[in-house]
Amino acid sequence: MAGKALRDCCTVAFQCFSNYMIKYKQTARMNAAVRAVVRMGIYVGAKVYFVHEGYQGMVDGGDNIKEATWESVSSMLQMGGTVIGSARCKDFRTREGRLKAAHNLVQRGITNLCVIGGDGSLTGANLFREEWSGLLAELVQQGLIDEEASQKYSALHIVGMVGSIDNDFCGTDMTIGTDSALHRIIEVVDAIMTTAQSHQRTFVLEVMGRHCGYLALVSALACGADWVLIPEMPPEDGWEEKMCQKLSATRSRGSRLNIIIVAEGAIDRHGKAITSSIVKDLVVQRLGFDTRVTILGHVQRGGTPSAFDRILASRMGVEAVLALLETTANTAACVVSLCGNQSVRLPLMECVQMTQEVQKAMDGKRFEEAVRLRGRCVSYALFVTCGVANYFLSFDCSFFNFNVAVLNVGAPAAGMNAAVRSAVRVGISEGHKMFAVSDGFEGFYKGQIKEIKWADVGGWTGQGGSLLGTKRTLPAKHIDKIAEQMRKYNINALLMIGGFEALECLLQLCEARSSYEEFCVPLCMLPATISNNVPGTDLSIGADTALNAIVETCDRIKQSASGTKRRVFIIETMGGYCGYLASVGGLAAGADAAYIFEEPFDIRDLQSNVEHLTEKMKTGIQRGLVLRNENSNENYTTDFIYQLYSEEGRGVFDCRKNVLGHMQQGGAPSPFDRNFGTKIAAKAMQWITKKLNESYRKGMKDNKDSACLLGMRRRAMVFQPVVQLKDETDFVHRIPKEQWWLKLRPLMKILAKYKTSYDISDSGQLEHVVLRRPKESEAMAAI
C-alpha cells in the first residue's frame, strides 16, 4: 500500500504508554519504541497522546495525558530510561480505577492503546479491553458520558510491545531491552576478567533473572564462563563436586581465572536457592581459590540502548501502529514479536498464558517442561557442550571420527573468534580431530596448519579481530598446493568463516571438485563481515559490532554539538558497495539521510535533503545527521556532500564531517555477535558431522548439498547450496541482488519527517503461538 493511502485511511487517536501494573521492571530502552509509535502515528494522520507514569497517569488523568508532537520525541534515541515515566499502580487493579481510566480516555476520544511493558502490563491492558463496554455503560449510568459518546467509542483496541530485560515473555525471540542489558553485563565481565587474570581469582557474577535465566545463560555463552546456574534448569544433585572439578581442571590447564554466572533466581532440584554467596563459600572451602562476588544489580537496566534494541524497538513501534490501523471490533489484542529476523503479530493472551505456564511448571518442579516452554533449551545444551562437555559427556577422546579444518577468510570481523571456538569445541565433543589454518588460504597452501585442542581456544569469545589470522587470498591460483595439504593432513571437511571472499573461495573449491577428489568433502561457510553483503543470509557475524561502533560514535558526535549553534554532521561508513551499515546505522542513530549505492541519488536529491534539514532547523532542531556509504557514488563524495551542505546551509547551519574508517572493524565483539557466532558455528559442525556420517566422499562430486552457506533467512537458520546463490549475487559490486534491509529505508525517512511511501506488504499478520517439540537429535542444532 502506498504511504499516502496509508495516511488517509486513519484518523483515530491512540495512546502510547509504558508501565508495569503488577511487578515493576523498568527497561531502559523504551524510548526508541515511543519515538517510532509517535512519529508513525503522526505520519498516518493520527493524534497521538502520551500517558505519563503508566496506568497511574491514565487513572489520574489531567496533565498526565498530553498530546505528543513530532518534536517531543526528538533526541531521545540515545537516552536511557523512559521519558514518559513508568510507575506501579494499585488503583488500576480495581474496577473503580479502571472506570476512572476509561472516563479519561473517552474524554479525549482515545480508543487505541499501544502498551509497552511486561506480561503484567499486557494482562492488565487486556482486562481493560474486555471490560471496556461494561465500563462505558457504567459511565453512562453515572451521567459522566452520554449515550452518543458510548456508541462512538464502543470498542477499545490494544497492541502490545514487550519491554523486559529478562527476555521472559513467550512468543518472541527477543524483548526490548534484553540486548542492552547483555551489553552492560558483558562490559562488566570483560573488565572483571582482566583483574581476575592478574590476581588468579575466581569471580562469581550475579545477574538479574528471578524467574528467567536468559541473561545468565547468554552472558555465560558470550564470555566463555566455566559454569552457569539458572532457575529453569537446576543442576543435578552433586553439582557442587562437578563444578569444583571443572574449575580445578581449568586451572590445571594453565588458566589464571574462573568465571561463574548465577541468575538471581537460581535454585537446586529441591527448590533451595543457590545464591552467589553460597557459590563463593563453596569454591573457597573446597578449592581454596581466591574468590570474589560481583552483583550487577540495576546497572543492567541503565545505560545507553544498544543498536539492536534501537532497531528492534523502532521496527516494533511501526508494526504496532500498522496493527492498530488494521484492527476491528472483533480483533483480539495482539503483541508485536520478533521471530528470527521478522516481525510477527501474536494473540496477546496466548503469549501471556504460555509465559504463566512456564512459572507453573517451575513451581511444580517440572523443569524440563519449563525449559521446553521457554524454547531456549538449545542454548543450555550449547553451553554444556562448549563449556563442560569435555568432562561430563561420554565419548572416547582417544578416538576421532574425522579431521575437520577451520579457517577465516577475507577481512576480520568481530565474532570470528567466538565462531572458531564454538566450532572447535563442538567438533571435539562429536569426536573429530580439529585443525586450524592460519592466514586463510594463503596459509593453507603454505602448510600453516596445526591441530587445535580444547584449551587452545579458551578466552577467545571476547577477542576482536581474527586470532587465526585472515587474508583475502583466493584458492584458484594455488589449488594444487591446497589439494596437496588436504591429502597431507587427511582433511575430511572444511569450515570457512568469512565474508564475500569466503563465498568466492567456496565456489572455486566446488569447481575444483571435478579435478581434485580432495575437495569432494563437506564444505561449509559461515558469513562473517561487517558489511553484511553476503547473499543467502540476512545477518553476518561482525555486523552488529560495527553498527554499535557507528551508533556510539554518532551519539558522541551529536552530543558534541550540544549548546552550540545549529550543526549538521556528515558521516562516512564502510561497507564497500553495500549500504547496510549506512542505512541500518542511520535508523539506529536517528539520521536524517543515508546515501547508498543501492538507491541511486543525484544533485536534486541532495538539494532536497538540504532544504529538508533547513526547514527542520527552523523548527528548533539543533542537530542533523547524514550518513554516506563509502562507495555510494564516485562523484558525490563525502567531501562534495560536505561542501554542498556547507554552502547551501549557510546562515542556517554549519557542517562537520567525519570518516569512521576501520574503527568499525575493531573492538571487542558485541554480545549478539558472540552468541550468533557461537550458535551458527555449532549448527555448522553438526551439519558437517551429519554429512560425513551419511556419505563421506560418496557422490559429493556432483552433490550440491555438500557445499553450503549457513545463514539466517527471515525466521530460520538455513543451509543453502552455494551454487544456487550464484544467481542471487551481483559479483561486480559484491552484493546480493535482493537485500531485506532496503525495506527499512522508508522507515528511516518517515522517522526523519520525510513524506514518502511505506510498503506494508511485509508487515506481520496475526498468527498463533506454536510450540514445536524438538527431536532429541535437533536439540543442539536448532537456534
Could you provide a short overview of the structure?
The protein has 783 residues and is of the alpha/beta class.
Radius of gyration: 27 Å
Q: What general form does the structure show?
A: globular
Helix content: 40-55%
Uncertain segments? 1-26, 388-399, 772-783
Strand element count: 25
Mean pLDDT across the residues is 87
Largest sheet, in brief, is:
8 strands, mixed
| Beta-strand content bin | 15-25%
Question: Helix/strand/pairing class, anyone?
Answer: alpha/beta
SS element count, helices: 25
For the terminal residues, how far apart are their CA atoms?
A: 33 Å
Pathway: Carbohydrate degradation; glycolysis; D-glyceraldehyde 3-phosphate and glycerone phosphate from D-glucose: step 3/4
Catalytic activity: beta-D-fructose 6-phosphate + ATP = beta-D-fructose 1,6-bisphosphate + ADP + H(+)
Enzyme class: transferase
Cofactor: Mg(2+)
